[in-house]
Amino acid sequence: MIALIGAAIAPGIAILSYFYLRDSFEPEPISMVIRSFIFGVLLVIPIMVLQFIMQTEWNWRDGIVAEVIQSAVVEEFFKWMVIFFTAYKHVEFDEPYDGIVYAMAVSLGFATLENLFYLIINGTNVAFWRALLPVSSHALFAVWMGYYLGKAKFSNHRQKKRIFLWASILLPITLHALYNAIFLAIQNWLLVIIPFMVILWWQGMKKVQRAHDYSSKNLSSRPQ
Hints:
The protein contains seven helices and no strands. With about 220 residues, the protein is an all-alpha fold. It has one domain. Helix 2 packs antiparallel against helix 3 (about 65-90) and helix 4 runs antiparallel to helix 5. Involved in the degradation of specific anti-sigma factors.
């Protein structure tokens, strides 16, 4: 059981630690990061209940559209809501890169408990693929969400702020929907999911670097 728990939580903690330690300007209080992670963990149960209601009461069980709404829309929307109301408006969100840190914490909290439930049901033999695909994908969707939340937070233009806020929710939903569609609609999904994940990592790391650049400019422009 200890090995199973370790296999379930290790990928999320490792990825979160990597992105947290990349914040070389003003690292977020570890208590805030842990709090965001716990919020992500707590999201799993209400989301599972809502998805169960969709499947049983609303009869949304099969098809790409049902899967997209139940998974991509519901999960990314609730993660965005938690980040927006608990971190985005917080005083500690004081540089653009912070958006990525908090989005990553909430998303990986969610992915970690989801991963634990999956491994309890299916065993540790799928732990490697779970770390490589579902857990990593949640982290990469969070990069896009956090990147645009960071841009929105520090934009001085009302119209641009709105655009960035919409991008912070719509782009992760779109990427999550594409991720799910690959497994549902393509028989040889492995041939597509590998390049898809490579592109996600490539573009995600570019977003991370840009967020660092924005943070550097934001800090240098503050009055001394």
